[in-house]
Automatic annotation (TrEMBL):
All copies of domain Transposase IS204/IS1001/IS1096/IS1165 DDE, residue ranges: 185-421
Protein name as annotated: Transposase
Annotated Transposase IS204/IS1001/IS1096/IS1165 zinc-finger domain residues: 44-86
Domain of life: Bacteria
Domain Transposase IS204/IS1001/IS1096/IS1165 helix-turn-helix: 96-146
Xref: PANTHER family: TRANSPOSASE FOR INSERTION SEQUENCE ELEMENT IS1557
Pfam families named among the record's database cross-references: DDE_Tnp_ISL3, HTH_Tnp_ISL3, Zn_ribbon_ISL3
Species per Swiss-Prot/TrEMBL record: Luteipulveratus halotolerans
Length: 431
């Protein structure tokens, strides 16, 4: 059997907004329910002198946005202005505020928490969540920004040490221009740089751009002790990243990410294939050209191919590569993969000698340029071979980031976008 409680009425219990009492619930002509509430207190402490008072100076009604409850609910707060009981206090009156509706707030704290929670753990569109809770896109973004700032402040205060750091660039969008308020055209930087803890895959930060300044700006905000504990940094073969790491992470060894090196080798192979196609047909590759039809097969690692795929690859190279240029570039690419797969520096050096031999036999500008990159980054390649530090997990984070971008249908503001990424990531790490 249910027992009616004397102190709390049913509407207040149902409404369940901490610190508030429901005074009345009415329905307007449009069907919207209006809930009139007041703070469940009988006295308040003056912020000027701290003396408690129970004298109400006046009441005003403030509209407050709250969580919808089976349809829209309009919340009206009958807000008191208290009169200070201390005669000598300069603060003669003061308005009340609560944990659920702090000063200047237009939304209840529980609504803010819902908005942030709805967008932190999941890849959802901001406007969809806004529609669900009856608030506008900028309102949702403001909550996310505030939550992100609070989290960043806490993180800044005491960041966790990271021994292996990943720095990876990703394309945020295509280059766009937009007009600012003064009417001037501004270029939107299409690249972002992500910082990851390689041990956990956690995204530590996202910054605009992919130059040395972007990376330095982020590293500079880390405490000195944190920077001194970073032992290994996995980066793309980018001189800008390397320079930033050298100046701000003095104890770290730079490991170049092997995926990016293999990608450079694949790019060289693709350039050769295109050049050969132009030389032979004086046009771009098309479906009837074997090398074009099997262009992805060329890029795959030979050790990952089935016997049938290997036969097909041999047939392609035999029929569509008369001067054996594609074959030469393919051999260079495969040899680079063997260099990177080596388990010791001695093995890697031996494989590198073979690689250099292949490049000199190939004698093509595309593969010669690749060799130059390998020479430039050899020290960082050796660190990779010793540590196997890779940005594979950063890449995974970038996939999530792209999904956030897609769900957001393109964020104009980087701050908004960064904030989504960091909150999503924080929610994932907490789970
Ligand atoms: Zn006072």
């Amino acid at each position: 059997m249910f027992k009616a409680t004397a102190d709390v009425d049913p509407a207040t219990t149902l409404f369940n907004l901490p610190g508030y009492r429901v005074l009345s619930v009415t329905r307007d002509a449009g069907g919207t329910r209006q809930v009139l509430i007041e703070a469940g207190v009988v006295e308040a402490a003056c912020p000027g002198c701290g003396v408690l008072t129970s004298r109400v100076h006046q009441r005003t009604v403030q509209r407050v946005r709250d969580v919808p409850f089976d349809g829209p609910v309009e919340v009206l707060w009958s807000k008191r202005r208290w009169r200070c009981a201390e005669r000598l206090c300069p603060r003669t009156t003061f308005t009340e505020h609560t944990e659920q509706v702090p000063p200047r707030a237009r939304l209840t704290t529980r609504l803010k928490e819902r908005l942030v929670a709805a967008l932190s753990g999941e890849v959802r569109a901001v406007d969809r969540v806004g529609a669900e809770y009856g608030v506008t896109w900028p309102t949702v973004m403001r909550q996310l920004t505030a939550a992100h700032a609070a989290r960043a402040a806490a993180e800044q205060f005491r960041p966790r040490p990271v021994a292996s750091l990943g720095i990876d660039e990703h394309r945020f969008r295509t280059v766009r221009w937009f007009r600012d308020e003064a009417g001037a055209w501004k270029r939107i930087e299409p690249w972002m740089t992500t910082f990851t803890d390689l041990a956990t895959g956690q995204v530590l930060g996202v910054v605009d751009g992919r130059d040395s300044a972007a990376v330095k700006t982020w590293l500079r905000t880390r405490p000195r002790w944190w920077r001194h504990r970073v032992r290994t940094v996995a980066i793309d073969p980018s001189a800008a990243f390397r320079s930033a790491v050298r100046s701000w992470l003095p104890k770290a060894r730079v490991a170049v990410d092997h995926f990016h090196l293999v990608k450079l080798a694949n790019d060289a192979l693709t350039k050769v294939r295109r050049r050969v196609s132009w030389d032979r047909h004086e046009r771009r590759g098309r479906g009837t050209d074997l090398a074009w039809a099997h262009r992805l097969l060329l890029l795959r690692g030979y050790d990952t191919l089935s016997n049938r795929a290997r036969e097909r690859l041999n047939a392609v190279l035999a029929q569509d590569d008369p001067a054996q240029e594609i074959s030469a570039a393919w051999g260079v690419k495969e040899q680079l993969r063997r260099v990177l797969a080596a388990s010791s520096i001695a093995d890697a050096s031996a494989e590198r000698a073979t690689f250099n031999q292949y490049v000199s036999w190939a004698a093509m500008p595309e593969t010669t340029r690749l060799k130059k990159t390998i020479d430039t980054w050899w020290a960082a390649i050796k660190v990779f071979i010793q540590t196997r530090a890779t940005n594979a997990r950063t890449e995974a984070a970038n996939v999530t980031i792209k999904n956030i971008k897609r769900a957001g249908r393109g964020y104009r503001s980087h701050t908004n976008y960064q904030c989504r990424i960091m909150l999503y990531n924080a929610a994932r790490s907490a789970a």
